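Allow me, if you will, to draw on your knowledge of protein folds for a short while. I am sending you one protein, given as its amino acid sequence and as whole-number tokens for its backbone shapes. Kindly check, if you would, that the fold set down in the tokens agrees with what the sequence suggests. The record follows directly beneath this note:
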Amino acid sequence: MEPLGENDIRASFVNCSKGEARRISLPRDLADLPWEDLDFLGWRDPGAPDRGYLVTVRDGKPAGVTLRVPQGGPRSFTKTTMCSLCLTGHPGSGVSLLAARKVGASGRDGNTVGAYICADLACPLYVRGKKLPLMTMRYKESLSVEERVARMRGNVDQFLDKVLQEG
């Protein structure tokens, strides 16, 4: 992924107003991120832990979505869960249900799309082995890193397709 600036990131959000996008807390270290290892930029808001953000490039342009952790729901700190984007297994709360408001009238009516995603939104780094989950044993896959990256990109695209689908 090519490095993105603050204005590009704020303008990329498709499921919030321009005012909401201006108030988003961006990662402090944008210039220092490992952009060459990122297929999407994902982060959680340290000031609002129930909020997350995902920005990727679609059709040559940045496309971003705001994410929320739904209130309530049981959480297990002993079971292993798997991210639906990168298929990385995490113990306990390493995976969160994150919901994105749909675009258009459907989103204004409160409709969302949810997915179980790495809680820290660092999927590209897990897929490449640049960041390791807290599991003592990793799942062995026969896919190459390039194949795992392609699978993750496809999963991100499918998630965004659902967010962008009106109706």
